[in-house]
Every structure is written in C-alpha cells, then in structure tokens.
Amino acid sequence: MRVVFLEESDPTRLAAREVEGQSDDGCFSANEIARIRGIGQEEAQESVDLLSERCLCSRTDDDWTGPRSGDERWCLIGPSLTVGREYEVLTVEGDWYRLLDDRDDPVLFHQICFAVSDPTEPTFWVCEVDEDGERHCAPPEWSQVGFWEDYHDRMPEACRRFWESLKTLYPDTSKERTPPAHAPGWAESRWPGIDGNRPRKS
C-alpha cells in the first residue's frame, strides 16, 4: 500500500501560519484562529486539537489541568515529509498511517495528509477491529503490545527486529532507507521531542 503526501491545504494550519508570521512570539492561539477563519471559538479549538493529534502543532506550556480559555499558545511543527513524495504504508492504526518519514523514523501520520496511490494491502498484514470500531493492520512481528514504545525508547531488540523485518517485508522501502547510526540501541535521541506514537486518548 502506497500513499502520496499532499500539499498543505488545511485551513487551520494556513491560518496558524498567518498568525505566526504576525505575532511577536511566533505562535498562535485558538481564539486567533477563530478570528482569522471567522468561526466560533469551540470549532477553532477543535481544529487546533486536530492539528495537535496529527503532530502538526504543539502547545508551548505543559499545564493541561485547568479549563482552556482559547488563549493558550501553540506553535506549528513542520511534518518530516516531502510534498508529492510517495511513501509505503507500514501499518494502519485507525485513521493513522505509520510510515518511514524523511529521517527514516517509523512515525504515525493522519490519513488526511495523503492520497492513496496504490491501495493494495500486504498479504502478511494481520488486521483487527478494536472496541471503538477502528481498524488496525500490521505485520505480526510488530503487533506485540509495547513494541513501538520499545522502539522509540531505543530498546536494542525492538530496533533490531524492526529493521530486519523491514528488509524482509518491505524490500523496496528498505533499499531506499538507512537505519539510524546507533541502531540497534541509540546512545542518545536522534530526534528529540518526537516519539512516533499516536497521541493517547484522554
């Protein structure tokens, strides 16, 4: 299965970019998005939350305990993908595709970011539907609970298993990519702040 990364067209992201260009701190808020887009504060907050779920923006503070006013500051995150480039889908996790980004990191991206160029799913995928009705498909080698957490925690065995399985299961993608210099088992985080895992439901 292959997908093509689309050119940026999300109206909230475009509005956020406009606000960031005019603000002193280079960030934006949901209330500013509401003003730019001419929508209600609640709709604007939901659209910002969706950007956050897609790993396209991050909040500048860590206080999630109190009620939100809409004035919380957010900053855009540039996706580590190339517009128009085709990527092979490694797993499907609900509305998310896991693929190797341009830094050779197996990261989840929301399906809304892509157009499907080849819908053929690998015969080795094991698929199941969870209690929320979301479909999950992955090679059995990567389906163990905690596998991706171990990979992004730089656990040597998970890292070795991923790259060895990639070579066997996805040979075309494997030929194009290079395992991180310290794999298996990184001495330090190659890409701080990115763990590649789907945001948890609260």
Tally of domains: 2
How many helices? The count is 6
Q: Helical percent range?
A: 25-40%
Mean pLDDT over the residues: 84
Report the end-to-end length measured between terminal Cα atoms: 31 Å
In spatial order, strands of the major sheet run 7-6-5-10-9
Q: What sort of overall outline do the alpha carbons produce when their principal axes are compared?
A: elongated
Derived structural class:
alpha+beta
Order of helices and strands: EHHHEEEEEEEEEHHH
| Sheet having the most strands | 5 strands, antiparallel
Beta-strand share of residues: 15-25%
Give the low-confidence spans.
184-202
Record field, number of beta strands: 10
Question: What is the alpha-carbon Rg in Å?
Answer: 18 Å
Layout: helices, strands, pairs:
Elements: E1 2-5, H1 11-22, H2 30-37, H3 41-53, E2 57-59, E3 74-76, E4 86-88, E5 91-93, E6 96-100, E7 106-110, E8 114-118, E9 126-129, E10 135-138, H4 147-152, H5 156-169, H6 171-176
Antiparallel strand pairs: 1-4, 1-8, 2-3, 5-6, 5-10, 6-7, 9-10
Helix pairs in contact: 1-2, 2-3
What would a concise description of this structure say?
The protein is of the alpha+beta class and about 200 residues long. It is about 30% helix and about 20% strand.
